[in-house]
Each structure stands twice: as C-alpha cells, then as structure tokens.
Amino acid sequence: MDDTIDSVLREYEARAVAEDAIMAEFSTRREMLDRRDQFLLPVGRHTGTLLNILVKESGATRVLEIGTSYGYSTIWLADAVRT
User: Where are the domains of the chain?
Assistant: First the structure.
C-alpha cells in the first residue's frame, strides 16, 4: 500500500473515532438510528487488511462491492487488485 492510500485510510479512521465519541453521547438508540447515515461506519483496519489479503491471495484482478457506504472497504479492495 502506498503512502497516499494509507493517508486517506487514516483520515477515515480519525473521522470514525471522532464520530464514535459523538454517537456515544446519544441518549437513545432511536437517536442513533435516526442519525446513522450522517456517520462513517467503516469495517475497520483489521477487517480491511483481511479483505486486502484475501483478494490478493485469491489472485483476483477485479472485485465487485455492493452496498458501499463511504468507500473505506472499497479502498482496501481496490488496493488489492492494483497491478
């Protein structure tokens, strides 16, 4: 993974940490559900790394992701199929 991709992932991760703190302040589950589309819900670095490794080890040259949120996992998948 090159530095540019890693930098983008770290920006997503920093935003997710900040948003987790905001969501922790919600007083009800309903409030969280009503506002969930305003926040990142990334799979996280460990899961992203696993996705990346699985795609690389499979030898895939193309991937299809359905149901993306903000593209965090897409970055991991795209990095895995780069040639």
Answer: 3-81
Q: At what angle do helices 72-81 and 3-24 cross, to 10 degrees?
A: 160
Torsion, Cα of 31, 37, 38, 41 (10° steps): 100
Residue where the block lists tokens 């997710």 = 16
Could you tell me if 51 and 74 are in contact, meaning their C-beta atoms sit under 8 angstroms apart?
A: no
pLDDT per residue of the chain (83 residues) written in tens, 0 to 9: 899 999 999 999 999 999 989 988 888 888 888 888 888 888 999 999 999 999 999 999 999 999 878 889 999 999 999 96
CB-neighbour burial class of residue 12 (10 A; exposed 0-12, middle 13-18, buried 19+): middle
pTM over 0.90: no
